[in-house]
Amino acid sequence: MILTRKSVYYFLIWVLIITFLGGCNCDKPQPVEEKKNTDISSNFDQEPIKESLRINNYTLKYSRKKDEKECIDFFKSGKKIRSYCEDYFIYAHLGIVKTPAPGTDINGDGIPEIIIEQYSGGAHCCYSYDIFSLGKKLRLIDSLDGTHSTFDFEDLDGDGKYEAIGTDFVFVYWAGLFGFPDSPAPGIILRWKNGKYRLAGDLMKKPPPLEKDLYKKMPYIDREDRSYSVLTREERSYLVLTTVMVELIYTGNGNLALKYCDWFMKNIYKDKPKKEIIKKRDEFLADFKKQLKESFYWPELKKMNGW
Questions:
Q1: Does the predicted model carry a pTM greater than 0.85?
Q2: Contact 108/159 with Cβ under 8 angstroms?
Q3: Which option is the CATH number for 38-149: 1.10.1760, 2.40.128, 2.40.160, 3.40.1130?
Q4: Cis before 100 (ω within 30)
Q5: Which residue, 15, 151, 276, 291, is most buried by CB atoms nearer than 10 A?
Q6: Integer angstrom CA distances of residue 17 from 7, 10, 12, 20, 267
């Protein structure tokens, strides 16, 4: 049988009709998706919440405005006293942190607080936090910039005050050596002190590693896989050096980090004259320290490491 273009056309239409009728449950009632009831502290995978939250004389209401903004409005004794608004974006969110529960006294001053989290909707950035005190007057008492990660709030030392646990991304993409997944991202712990969240060096400190174990840390230098293949051997060595030094500094072992840097340079440039090794070490340290000082937490890091 010879198939003409017209017969092929009708055959395809017939196949589509049979497929549709076979796969369609047109005679069956389709289930209606159940709408979940959420409160104002719900997680952000859910639809924006519209219920009210009441803490003492304050009422907080979430709303989506006609101008494509989402807002949390603060009311006191029925009167709106403040609106907290951000541009709405499908992947972004604005809401109240669920843990600790809204209204918890997180800083030990006897006054309830709430923490508002805002995420800009980028691939992995950016998170920010505003902490409001719900006393006689509504006050913004601190703001935290999480950049590429969230902050968690937990009472780590049992003193009744909540620490903020996050990550410092000051070395993200640094010097073109790192992709985002490989960038040094040391953990940080902040404690409420003198009216603000500040680095809690005593909670971050760890015993120094054994030097015999530390001086084995040169794992990526000869790797040719993933993004490392585009880097020179020298650049790969700096990637390792940076990662280890950051880890040491953020656990209170900064002087050991400098000692490690000296050892590392002598090993990767062991065939070069001493003056050239010192020059390369000093150049690296100058760039490294310049970047480290860009951290929000540099003053506390400096004190934590006894510098």
A1: no
A2: yes
A3: 2.40.128
A4: yes
A5: 151
A6: 16, 11, 9, 5, 72
